[in-house]
Amino acid sequence: MFIPFGKTTINLLIGRGCSKLSTIIVISEVKMSGQDQKPQKNDSENTTHFGYKTVEKTDKASMVAGVFHSVAQQYDVMNDLMSFGVHRLWKRFTIDASGVRPGNTVLDLAGGTGDLTAKFSKLVGRDGKVVLADINSSMLNVGRDKLRDKGLVQNIEYVQANAESLPFEENTFDIVTIAFGLRNVTDKDKALRSIYSVLKPGGRLLILEFSKPEHELVNKAYDFYSFNILPKIGQIVAKDGDSYQYLAESIRMHPDQETLKGMMENAGFEQTTYKNLTGGVVALHKGYKF
Amino acid sequence: MSTFNEQVMHQQALCSALEIIINKALSLNEQGTEDLTRLSQKTLTIILEELGFPLSFSVYTSSKNNQILVTTISQSADCTIKTSIKTLIQLQKEKKLTELIKQDKLDIDGDIKTAQGFASLAESIDIDWQSEVARHIGDIPTYKLSQLLDKLCSKLSFAAKQITADASEWLVHEKRLVVTRSQIMHFNSQVDVLSRQTNDLAKRIDQLTNLMAETTQNKKPHE
Ligand SMILES: C[S@@+](CC[C@H](N)C(=O)[O-])C[C@H]1O[C@@H](n2cnc3c(N)ncnc32)[C@H](O)[C@@H]1O
Q1: Does B179 contact A217 at a Cβ distance shorter than 8 Å?
Q2: Of A252, B59, B72, B82, which alpha carbon lies 20 to 30 A from B185's?
């Protein structure tokens, strides 16, 4: 399998100042074009992890992009297969914990193929709005096609954006969710600060992410599954073992429950809590902006 | 720290199952469309004493499909009913709503029209479940299935009675389930062995694939 690391170029709607939600460029045809990422000197401040590998910070986004361009078409099937369908319950748990109401404005960040967006769109109703934002054009395209096929068109906008510098005005959203996305972000602290800024006072962030299993037994079984079985399913079904090897590695490199909670507090979030799901294989963190 | 109950997400599993059953029933019931459209964007929340968490039913309608979404979000209800399964059964049998309200067995808060709308929708659903299932799996399996369900229900209620009757015995059972350190070590080493075996197997598959590729290549000039 060939992942075009370092070669993938994406045109991002990032860092160009904040725009009002109503004036955000909604991407109807997401295209790839030049990206102005310059590799920098190799010192520890400029490096980060990509799975178990150490890479230049400036390269990580495009390497992650490579993975998700590669898995986009098979993403939903693989999700069901790899989690035995349990990811649907984790996502339901997230929706329930969000306390979403009709009329709310929701950002489904790193929303990929739009599972959360679909549910939110129905629950916020005609007076509400959901923005599906993702850094990756292939994932956004698959998501947009899927949601349109379901007849979900009225209150959804699609925005290609990097979680680290969100192109929205301050105090825009009632709810921001990021499901299985944060571990792929290069500068997670920057992303948390950016999310904090676009939330309205009283708004809340929900982070659904793989985490550290509470019990040693679960941990061991889970390790075996992720490193021995998962890449093989990836190889057989999606013909892409390398991407699924990265997914397994990136899960292990992601901060554990308490560390992530601390990071949220550093970014300004209050009343920060988390709940372990499926023995801590996954955790849902929640924090408020007041 | 979360409790075990939260981890198994039984609330979400129940919501998911209810959503599937209700929407399947709605799709078989064309008469309900009008009721559904009238209830568009309305939410009824039912808080059942026995469950310990709210069940909210929100109506979503669009040109492509109508649906009821089931969640545990209670903050945005148009109408909330607080009661117990026991009272609901009583209500179904005796239909003495005001009496039950007076006895504090049932509490309705919010827009009563929403509750009535949902009630009329539920009444309009008139599906013969057994023949629906039979259409898919045949008469005899359906009969067996309903027998099995009956048995399961009586077993479950027996188990529930037992658990409440003797909590201390339950604790002993739980204790026996706790794994010891040496069991963990044993499990870990078994996983390691399995992991090595899987890798060996993967290597053998690779070798076989290569061998097959070579054989096909060697064959080609003769063809
Ligand atoms: C594992 S998928 C999760 C998709 C979806 N939220 C779900 O739960 O099914 C991770 C997503 O994060 C996106 N992503 C990675 N880095 C990102 C970043 N810096 N900003 C925004 N999205 C990012 C990827 O493109 C990908 O679609």
Answers
A1: yes
A2: A252
Pick from A233-242, B3-12, B57-66: least confident: B3-12
Cβ count within 10 A of residue B206: 10
Same domain, A188 and A149: yes
Domain shared by A51 and A96, yes or no: no
What confidence tens digit (pLDDT) does each residue in A76-133 have? 887 888 788 889 999 999 999 999 999 999 999 999 999 999 999 999 999 999 999 9
Give me ligand 1 centre to Cα A44, in Å.
25
Please determine, for the modelled complex, whether the ipTM score is greater than 0.85.
no
Tokens 């160009």 found at = A16
Distance of alpha carbon A8 from alpha carbon A14, whole angstroms: 17
Which of A58, A90, A185, A205 to mutate for ligand 1's pocket (most ligand atoms within 8 Å of CB)? A185
- Burial tier of B183 (Cβ tally within 10 Å: 0-12, 13-18, 19+): exposed
**Nearest Cα to A240, choosing from A230, A249, A226?**
A230
Same-domain pairing of A54 and A96:
no
